[in-house]
Amino acid sequence: MTHRSTNILTLLILVGLVAGALFGEFGLFATGTVVDGDHWLKAAGDLVLIRPLKLLVVPLIFFSVISGISRIGDPSKLGKVGGATLVYYLATMFMAVSLGTLLVTWISPGVLQASVQEELIGTAHVIGATQGAANDLGSAWMNILYQLIPVNILDDMVKVQPLGIIVFAIAFGLALAAGGDKTKAARDICNACFEGLMILVRWIIWLTPIGVFFLVAWTVGKIGFDSIKGPLGMYMVTVLVGLAVHGFLVLPLVLYLFSRKNPYQFMWQMKRALMTAVGTDSSSATLPVTIDTAENEGGCSKRAANFVLPLGATINMDGTALYEAVAVVFLFQLFGIELEFGQLVIVVITATLAAIGAAGIPSAGLVTMVIVISAVNMNLTGSATGPLPIAAIGIIIGVDRILDMCRTAVNVWGDAVGAKIITKLAPDD
Ligand code: ASP
Questions:
Q1: pTM of full prediction above 0.90
Q2: Residue 427: is the preceding peptide bond cis (ω within 30°)?
Q3: Ligand 1 geometric centre to CA of 360 (Å)
Q4: How many domains does the structure of the chain reveal?
Q5: What is the CATH number of the domain that holds 332?
Q6: Which atom of ligand 1 is nearest to the CA of 358?
Q7: How far is CA 38 from CA 46, 86, 215, 410, 416, in A?
Q8: Residue to probe by mutation, ligand 1, list 314, 403, 408, 413, most atoms within 8 Å of CB
Q9: pLDDT digit string, tens, across residues 318-352
Q10: Residue 131, domain extent
């Protein structure tokens, strides 16, 4: 893409975001056009943007990782790059989650007037709990381990389980690199398939402005900016302040320390991916755009980006980790339980785990939060179900989408910073 068309596309996405927000706030939504099942705005956004992007995710992860790994080639270098990537993911998620825990303990958004507190707690039972997550720590670990050691790669592809695909692609990429001349043809084919997919990505991303318009209109129409003023307002503000500090201060500082480059210039170069993350609520659907932007505008090497970004979209979620910590401590506060230091440490560890386990799809963080609540409950009473009922998650479901937009952007930003740092270790020659 030329520089000019990139600028036009970025501008169109921005227009889509703003117009969507205005349309949602003042537009048709107010006149009650919600239908059974999906609202038409959401359905349109899914058709125009989410489905086409998701279509690319599995083949893109597969070929991108193989091509990145076989480009790095030398196994000892690969070990260094892989190790540094994992350390980066864990360290930044740990920083995010600690920041969230500090903020929520300090601001105490859940300590409200008794009447407001009771009213909010009442809504939990009306809305009901989020189901479907592994709800204890042991099964959370096992779940991740099972995903890491897949038995049938096609099954993982069909179920879109990225971890298994990545593990296989890493192993296969290593083998192709080790094979020298004998496997050169396969390496070339994988590289060419990756390039072909990226051309497809560049076609599809022209749909981003329209898709983002529909999706943001739906989100804002459904929830509205007014919710920030309501009783859940301080909770939302706490999450947003935490995300802002992490995204605008902590990650830029980390990037500066390791690369000595201007981090805000890099953030500006990554804006297309960040806006797509806001619009889609999904780091996984944004992945094709993240790879394209990081390589073509952000100056990340193919070697680093092809490997760090797909893996990051799956396991590196700074925004989600921070959000989970704030949300869980907030809910405990609402139920009148002040967590002690030891319990806050449990929150920090399990929220990191829950963020790693969360898929890069909308509201995934809300579901894996069950792990954190159960772990703290176990510590408090020896039983996963009390004293904070899992159904309490229902209290924050209503405002989750807006927070999801912001934490997804921080998730994608964290991946991009990782790719930029690892570019130093693995530059393209
Ligand atoms: N929507 C987030 C993402 O895709 C995950 C979450 O926090 O719900 O990165």
A1: no
A2: no
A3: 5
A4: 1
A5: 1.10.3860.10
A6: 5
A7: 10, 38, 12, 27, 32
A8: 408
A9: 999 999 999 999 999 988 888 889 889 999 999 99
A10: 3-422
